[in-house]
Design goal:
The complex is a heterodimer of chains A (78) and B (503). Chain A is mainly alpha-helical. Chain A contains 4 helices and no strands.
């Protein structure tokens, strides 16, 4: 399973949106339950599922789903 | 003489080097040679940006124009690490609040509160723009000044706001309920509301988001589906699905405000009271945010607004005084507050200008308490709240912002209720960020007694274990906040008097 598909599964679960399709330009304003709290829950789920750890500076820089996918890829390589 | 010439030559040489040295330095074998630049030695005055910019210069200029009385308020005695009250002392404190609650408030009750911080902000105090508005009301200015109260379930359905509104309106004139959303998850205090027809409800958090991010200042918006046909009245009764809102009020009103935007040609609202049509108005202005005040033919307690034509973006209704102070409740259940940043600064600024908002009260934090588990999450939330307070402050360059801290919240641990561990620290973070951003701050957490205080408030039937205040404690807290604000307002008036005398 590629990173995007795996991330989509996490998004569907955390944001309680079974039909959600993620895309690179997607931001919090497009997802009904996405706010700072659910963002933290989502990030912690991503860390758990992908076996990676984000730094605070990484999290602050994230602008959209595309940035998150790139970061996941970087962390998995590194 | 030789020495003077030598020194002069060196200074000239260094000056020339400084002036002509390239910005990026000289590159040699991967090494960059830098020299202090002329602009750094002799900085040029900053050029003003365009007139609509929200930079500090504009804010300072506005403040100078306003001529606020000079303020050098020392808040150092309030920037302390508090000790939590013992249970016995807290018990006595709560009982004293309860006793005081029975008495009506007079000016002798306005005493300095260690929990309210009104920091200096650009030669004035953070609360001066709000106090300026209060002062103008006292001077008889024929205008409505608004306070927008933002928060989570602690304030939803007009909780806390209603007490603050009643107290300020008692002292500074005004009446009415302020902002009324078309729909909310909670039953409002003071009036009944029924929404009829097929409606869409958009929220920045906890519901459907608007596809074009169109929200009112409270982070919500509404639209109806289809097109109503509101006349004649008999027809309205037969067509049960006409998009409409029905209000049953405790007091009579002779004017109603409709908050809307992106109006369409032919969109109208017809206002009825039972079988009598008492007003109608076009909702066709295509601008982003309008508030129209519609005079009613008679003062009524029962109001039905029927909409026809294509739906504009509807934000809500307001019932306001002709002049004085008005408080709007913008409660968002379950929210941490950052969703308001979905509205861009410029949009919010426009709305606040239309509404004449002079104070925003920001009361968020309770919902993040379960997630403040690590340094990383604390630091992340700090960043979120820093951006949020700054966002409000930028959107309100000519108004005040007051941050109300998180209150104590507990959770069950092995069957016993205990406070979440990092609330105290996060309250200090909120205090630091509020002051940094030019906002006033009220330490609700410490006012209530600090760590684990919620257990006693709960035993005294003043709060749920999870931290939600009861009707009685909301009134206690709001009254104490009011008194603290009024003390600061009196200090402001003394400064004004001194300024007048000095003239």
């Amino acid at each position: 399973m590629d990173n995007k598909t795996q991330l989509e599964i996490i998004f569907r679960e955390v944001f309680s949106a079974p039909d959600l399709h993620i895309h690179e330009a997607m931001t919090a304003s497009e997802v009904n339950q996405w706010d700072s709290i659910s963002h933290l829950i989502m990030i912690s789920k991503v860390e758990e599922v992908f076996g990676i750890k984000f730094k605070l500076k990484d999290l602050i820089k994230l602008k959209n789903v595309g940035d998150l996918l790139l970061l996941i890829e970087e962390k998995r390589k590194g | 003489m030789k020495g003077i010439i030598y020194t002069f030559t060196v200074i000239i040489s260094l000056g020339l080097c400084s002036y002509f040295w390239p910005k990026e330095g000289f590159q040699y074998q991967g090494i960059s040679l830098q020299f202090i630049r002329f602009e750094e030695l002799f900085p040029q005055p900053k050029q003003k940006t365009n007139k609509n910019s929200l930079d500090g210069e504009k804010i300072v200029a506005e403040k100078e124009k306003k001529n606020y009385p000079a303020y050098e308020g020392d808040i150092s005695h309030k920037l302390i690490q508090f000790e939590d009250l013992s249970e016995a002392d807290l018990d006595k404190f709560i009982d004293s609040l309860r006793r005081k609650k029975r008495d009506s408030i007079s000016s002798t009750d306005f005493k300095e509160s260690v929990y309210l911080i009104n920091p200096p902000y650009q030669n004035a105090s953070a609360l001066d723009p709000f106090f300026d508005a209060l002062n103008e009301i006292e001077q008889g200015k024929d205008q409505i000044y608004r306070v927008n109260h933002y928060g989570d379930s602690q304030i939803e359905g007009d909780r806390m706001t209603i007490t603050l509104r009643n107290l300020f309106q008692k002292f500074f004139s005004g009446n009415g309920y302020g902002f009324i959303p078309f729909y909310d998850v909670t039953t409002p205090l003071g009036y009944e509301r029924k929404l009829v027809g097929s409606w869409n409800h958009y929220k920045v958090f906890g519901g459907q988001k608007h596809p074009q991010k169109k929200y009112g200042p409270g982070g919500t918006s509404f639209s109806y589906n289809g097109q109503g046909n509101p006349e004649p009245y008999q027809q309205i009764q037969e067509e049960k699905n006409n998009p409409s809102i029905h209000l049953q009020l405790q007091k009579s009103f002779s004017e109603i405000g409709i908050w809307y935007g992106k109006g369409k040609t032919g969109s109208k609202v017809y206002i009825w009271s039972d079988s009598i049509k008492i007003a109608e108005a076009q909702l066709d202005d295509s601008s982003q945010f309008r508030m129209i005040r519609i005079p009613l033919q008679q003062a009524v307690k029962k109001i039905q607004c029927y909409f026809s034509g294509m739906s504009p973006v509807l934000y809500g209704i307001s019932l306001d005084p002709k002049r004085g102070i008005q408080f709007d409740n913008f409660g968002l259940r379950g929210h941490s507050g950052d969703g308001i940043m979905t509205l861009q600064v410029e949009s919010l600024q426009l709305m606040y200008q239309v509404l004449n908002t002079k104070l925003a009260i920001i009361q968020f934090g309770g919902n993040i308490t379960p997630y403040l588990k690590s340094e990383k999450t604390m630091a992340y939330m700090k960043e979120v709240y820093k951006n949020m307070y700054r966002h409000f402050k930028k959107a309100l360059p000519e108004a005040s912002v007051l941050v109300l801290s998180i209150n104590d919240v507990s959770r069950s641990v092995n069957g016993q209720y205990e406070s979440y561990p990092n609330i105290s620290d996060f309250r200090y973070i909120q205090r630091e960020l509020a002051i940094e951003s030019g906002c006033a701050f009220f330490d609700l957490y410490q006012f209530m007694g600090g760590h684990s205080s919620i257990a006693l408030w709960n035993r005294k039937n003043l709060a749920a274990k999870d931290g939600h205040l009861t009707e009685e404690s909301r009134e206690l807290v709001s009254k104490e906040l009011f008194k603290a604000l009024m003390y600061e307002y009196n200090q402001y008036k003394k400064r004004i008097s001194r300024q007048e005398e000095n003239k």
